[in-house]
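Retry 2 of 3 after timeout on previous attempt. Resubmitting C-alpha cells to design endpoint.
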C-alpha cells in the first residue's frame, strides 16, 4: 500500500512507534521556532535541561508578539531571548523583522523537513511542504535539546481541491469553507493533506493561509505537496537549493476525504465569536463597519498586501472606519515601500503598523465598545481583540479592503473587476535583522531582567488526589479564556505567579482567589476544552493555583499535552452525561490515584458531595503515565537522566 505525503514525512522521521492512528509515535525534529510570548518559558526550560547547544538543523527565536514597549517587561524579555539564543546556537529574528510564520516561510522553511514551534500556527509551514506542528514550550525545548516529539499518530484527511477560484474569491475563503464543514473540532487527531488539480492554481503564501488556519480546525497540522509552484517560490527567495519534490504515492490511502469545488466558492466570513461560524458575505448583509484590520500570520504576505493596495489605490477609507494594516515581514514591507504600494495605502488613509502580530493578539487597536471589526486574522474569540463587546468577523484581505472603502461589510465582487497581481520573480532579500548565534564556545552572558521569574514545577503525583470542583465551564473554552492575552498581560509571560491572578477570569473573576483559598482542586470542562493557542501558560497558571486535574468532555491536542507536561491530570468523562453530576464546589476525590493511573485508562473520581462514583478516562500513553506520576515532564526528564 502506498503512503500519503504526511505518512511519508513521518516515516522518514520516525524514532519510535507504529504509524497506526491513535497510538503514540515519536518523530525527529529538524527545525524549531519560538516567538517571544511563549519563547521566554521555552528557553527557561531549555536552560533547566542543561544542554549547551541546540541539536536541531535550525532553530529560530522570533520577536513578534510583545512588541509594544510601554514598560521594561517586554524589552527585558527580548534581551533575555536574544542573549540566550546567541549562547545556545539559535538564530534571533529581531522585532520588526516580521511575524514568525511569515518569515519562516520566506527564509527558513524547507519542504520535507519537520518543524516544531511554540505557537499553534506553526502549521503555516505546511504551505511549503513541511510537517510543521505547534506545541507547548517545553516540548520545543526538548526538541531543541535533540529529543524527539511525541504525539498520537493522527489520521490523515485528504481535502481535494477541484477547479480554480473565481475572481475575488481567495485562499481565505477555501479554509473558511473547510471550517464551515468540519467545525473547530473537526480536525482533532488529524492531519489535513491537500490534493487535487486546484492546488496548482495556488501560490505558496495562499497555501500557507490555508494550512495556517488548519489550527482553527484543531488539526495536528495541514500540508501541501511540494511542486513546481513551491520551487518557483523558493527560487524567488534565493533558496532553490532547498527545494525537493514531495507528493503522495499514486495508491496512497486516506482515512477521510472531502472535496471542494473551488469555482463554486464565494466570499465568506467567520462571524462572531468562532472561526467556524461561517456564512457567505452576501448573506450576512451590509452591516456597518467600525474597524478593518489587515495582517496577521494568516494574511500578510506580499500578494495579500498588493491586492489590498490595488483596491485602495485612488480611493479613500470611509470616514467612519479605522483601517490598520500590518505587513507580515520586513521583506513584504520593503517591497511595498519600493514599488509604491505603501504610498497607495497611506494615501487612502490606512494606518500602517509594525510588521508584527499587533492587534491579532490584542497588542493595541482594541475596537470601540460594541464595534464591528473586520479582520483578516484567524481567531475571533470573544474578547481576544481587547474589547469584550466587539464583534469580530474574519474575512479575506479583498473583502476587508473593499469594506474599508464602503464602510459596510461588502461582497467585494460588487466592486467590479478584481485586481490583477502576480508573484514577484524575485523577492527582496535582506536577512540583516536575523542575528546568527555566537560561535560555539564563545562567552555570552545571558541577561535576565527582573521580569524573568522562576516557573512552577509540580510534585510527584500523590496517592490521594482531592479537592473541590473550583469552576465548571461549557464547550469550546479557549486558551484565551484560561490564560487571557492582551497588551496588559502579555508582558508577564515570563512571570507565571502574576499571570495566575488572571487565570480563567473571563469565565469567573473569582476563580484565582477561590483556587488559592481551597489549596487547589479541579476544573470541570465541556468538549474541546483548551482549543486555540499553544500557550503552556494555560497549564502553568492553573498549576500555580494548585489545580490537580481537569475533567472535560474532550480536550484540544496542544492544551492536553501542556497539562500532561505540567503534571495536571487530563480526564474525560466516560459517559458525557456525567458532566451534569458535578457542580461547582463539589468535593472530589481520586483514591489510589497512582495505582489507578498505572493500571489503565478508566479510573474513578468520587463525588463525595453527591455520593456518586464517576468514571473518567485518562487516555495516556505509557510514557505520559510516567510523566503524570513524576509530576510533569521536567521531573520525568530529570529522573530519566539520573
Ligand atoms: C495566539 O495566536 O493566540 C498566539 C499568541 O500566537 C498563541 C501563542 C501564545 O499564546 O503566545 C498561539 O497561537 O499559540
Ligand atoms: Fe501572531 Fe496572531 Fe499569528 Fe498568533 S495568530 S502568531 S498572535 S499573528
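Retry 2 succeeded. Sequence:
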Amino acid at each position: 500500500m502506498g503512503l500519503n505525503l504526511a505518512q511519508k514525512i513521518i516515516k522518514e522521521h520516525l524514532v519510535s512507534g507504529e504509524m497506526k492512528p491513535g497510538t503514540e509515535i515519536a518523530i525527529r525534529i529538524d527545525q524549531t521556532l519560538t516567538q517571544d510570548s511563549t519563547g521566554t518559558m521555552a528557553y527557561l526550560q531549555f536552560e533547566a535541561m542543561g544542554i549547551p547547544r541546540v541539536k536541531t538543523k535550525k532553530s529560530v527565536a522570533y520577536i513578534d508578539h510583545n512588541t509594544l514597549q510601554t514598560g521594561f517587561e517586554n524589552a527585558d524579555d527580548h534581551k533575555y531571548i536574544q542573549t540566550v539564543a546567541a549562547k545556545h546556537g539559535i538564530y534571533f529574528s529581531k522585532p520588526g523583522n516580521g511575524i514568525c510564520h511569515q518569515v519562516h516561510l520566506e527564509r527558513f522553511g524547507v519542504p520535507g523537513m519537520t518543524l516544531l514551534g511554540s505557537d499553534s500556527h506553526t502549521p503555516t509551514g505546511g504551505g511549503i511542504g513541511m510537517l510543521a506542528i505547534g506545541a507547548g514550550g517545553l516540548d520545543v525545548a526538548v526538541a531543541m535539546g535533540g529529543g524527539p516529539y511525541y504525539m498520537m499518530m493522527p489520521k490523515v484527511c485528504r481535502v481535494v481541491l477541484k477547479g480554480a477560484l473565481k475572481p475575488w474569491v481567495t485562499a481565505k475563503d477555501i479554509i473558511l469553507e473547510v471550517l464551515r464543514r468540519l467545525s473547530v473540532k473537526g480536525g482533532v487527531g488529524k492531519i489535513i493533506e491537500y490534493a487535487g488539480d486546484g492546488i496548482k492554481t495556488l501560490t505558496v503564501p495562499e497555501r500557507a493561509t490555508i494550512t495556517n488556519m488548519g489550527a482553527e480546525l484543531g488539526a495536528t497540522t495541514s500540508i501541501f505537496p511540494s511542486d513546481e509552484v513551491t520551487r518557483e517560490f523558493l527560487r524567488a527567495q534565493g533558496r532553490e537549493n532547498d527545494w525537493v519534490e514531495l507528493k503522495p504515492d499514486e495508491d496512497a490511502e486516506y482515512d477521510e476525504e472531502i472535496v471542494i469545488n473551488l469555482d463554486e466558492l464565494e466570499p465568506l466570513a467567520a462571524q462572531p465569536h468562532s472561526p467556524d461560524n461561517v456564512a457567505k458575505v452576501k448573506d450576512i448583509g451590509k452591516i456597518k463597519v467600525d474597524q478593518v484590520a489587515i495582517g496577521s500570520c494568516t494574511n500578510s504576505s506580499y500578494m495579500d498586501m498588493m491586492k489590498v493596495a490595488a483596491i485602495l489605490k485612488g480611493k479613500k477609507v470611509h470616514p467612519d472606519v479605522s483601517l490598520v494594516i500590518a505587513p507580515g515581514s520586513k521583506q513584504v514591507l520593503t517591497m511595498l515601500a519600493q514599488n509604491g504600494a505603501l504610498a497607495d495605502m497611506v494615501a487612502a488613509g490606512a494606518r500602517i503598523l509594525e510588521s508584527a502580530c499587533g492587534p491579532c493578539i490584542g497588542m493595541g487597536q482594541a475596537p470601540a465598545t460594541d464595534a464591528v471589526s473586520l479582520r483578516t486574522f484567524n481567531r475571533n474569540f470573544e474578547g481576544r481583540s481587547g474589547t469584550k463587546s466587539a464583534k469580530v468577523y474574519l474575512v479575506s484581505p479583498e473583502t476587508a479592503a473593499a469594506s474599508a472603502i464602503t464602510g459596510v461589510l461588502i461582497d467585494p465582487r460588487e466592486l467590479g473587476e478584481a485586481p490583477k497581481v502576480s508573484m514577484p520573480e524575485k523577492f527582496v532579500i535582506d536577512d540583516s535583522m536575523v542575528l546568527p548565534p555566537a560561535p560555539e564556545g564563545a562567552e555570552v552572558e545571558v541577561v535576565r531582567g527582573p521580569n524573568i521569574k522562576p516557573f512552577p514545577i509540580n510534585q510527584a503525583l500523590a496517592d490521594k488526589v482531592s479537592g473541590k470542583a473550583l469552576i465548571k465551564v461549557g464547550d469550546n473554552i479557549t486558551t484565551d479564556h484560561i490564560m487571557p492575552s492582551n497588551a496588559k498581560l502579555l508582558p508577564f509571560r515570563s512571570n507565571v505567579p502574576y499571570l495566575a491572578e488572571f487565570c480563567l477570569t473571563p469565565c469567573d473573576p473569582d476563580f484565582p482567589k477561590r483556587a488559592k483559598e481551597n489549596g487547589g482542586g479541579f476544573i470541570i470542562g465541556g468538549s474541546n476544552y483548551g482549543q486555540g493557542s499553544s500557550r503552556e501558560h494555560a497549564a502553568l497558571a492553573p498549576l500555580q493555583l494548585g489545580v490537580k486535574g481537569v475533567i472535560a468532555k474532550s480536550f484540544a491536542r496542544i492544551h492536553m499535552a501542556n497539562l500532561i507536561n505540567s503534571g495536571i491530570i487530563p480526564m474525560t468523562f466516560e459517559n458525557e452525561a456525567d458532566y451534569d453530576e458535578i457542580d461547582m464546589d463539589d468535593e472530589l476525590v481520586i483514591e489510589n490515584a497512582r495505582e489507578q493511573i498505572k493500571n489503565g485508562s478508566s479510573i474513578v473520581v468520587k463525588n463525595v458531595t453527591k455520593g456518586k462514583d464517576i468514571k473518567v478516562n485518562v487516555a495516556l500513553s505509557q510514557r505520559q503515565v510516567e510523566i503524570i506520576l513524576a509530576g510533569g515532564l521536567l521531573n520525568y526528564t530529570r529522573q530519566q537522566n539520573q
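Attempt log closed. Residues 465-641 form a domain with the Aconitase; domain 4 fold (CATH 3.20.19.10).
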